[in-house]
Structures are given as C-alpha cells and as structure tokens.
Amino acid sequence: MVSEPLAAFGPAPWTHRGFHVTLLLKDAAQLAQYQKFGGVRVTEGEYLSFVKAEALVPSNRLDTKIKHLLVCCKSYATIEAILPWRQHLADDAQIVLLQNGMGSAQALQRALPKANIYCATSTDGAWRKGPFDVVRAGKGEPSLAALVTICWLLKYPTLLSTCLPSSQIMKTNQTNHRC
Question: Which of 9, 35, 111, 131 falls between 20 and 30 A from 148, CA-CA?
Fold first, then answer.
C-alpha cells in the first residue's frame, strides 16, 4: 500500500537488507502503472535509486498467508486498502499502521479482531512527486506501539507519566478517545 512514508519505511530499506518485500496494490490499473514505471523511484538529495519489489493485487492467488503487513496510506483509506486483502491475511497477522491520522487502528481492530495492530509514526519526511516516485525530504526517528498498549496507557493516565518522560507524552482529550 503506497503513500508518502514509502521512502523511509517502504521497500527500499528492506530490500537493500535482503528481506523479501511485496507491494500490495489497489487494482490492475495501479499494477500496470507500477510495472510501466519499473519500480519505485526514491530521490534522496542528489541520489536516485530504483527499488523493484514484487507487486500484487487482491485478485492474485497467494501461496501463503500474510503474517506481517506495513500499511502506508492516509488514515481515512485504511479499511478500504486492507479489507480487499482480508482473505490473504493470517488470523493473527501483525499489522503496522504508519499514518498521519487517528481512528483507523480502532476501526481496523473491529474489522479484524484477531489481528495484532501496531501504530507507528515517524519524524522522517517524504512526499510523492508522482505515482511510484518519492522524494525523501528528511531523516527522522520512528516510534511504534501496540494498539492495546496505547489504549491501556490512555485508560490509566497516571501510569503513562511513569512510563515516559513528560516531553514524550501526547496530550489527549480522553473524553473523545475510544479504544
């Protein structure tokens, strides 16, 4: 699932380290566009690299279930992006949502109750120049937490202050937050 964070967390760092990466695309039109482009182009400063990874659409037959899924799309598009792949997901799949938005993790947990949902954020910056053409705008640090951990800490805010320095605690309006 392709979006802006792709430069930092998409196929490039994984394929360069020898991991098998598969891009899960929306439909045949997006797959044809990816194939025509020849991969994902990543520009970082004056350096340009192409990353080629296997790319599939939901109608493809998979030999194994997906156990690890990194989702890089706008938060409002999460359910629409993942549900077509539902039949390919292992019941206990580990799904990492790398997004700039809220609420999608809880909606996904309701749709896939056995899945292990993780929320990620990064201070890394990237923007799309065009389809499968990403410009990395800055290097940053990722943060990752399990959805159940986030909900548990928000439910017991006094424990949150003992787990994290005050500079890292996100102010949350608890009356509007539902886990």
Answer: 9
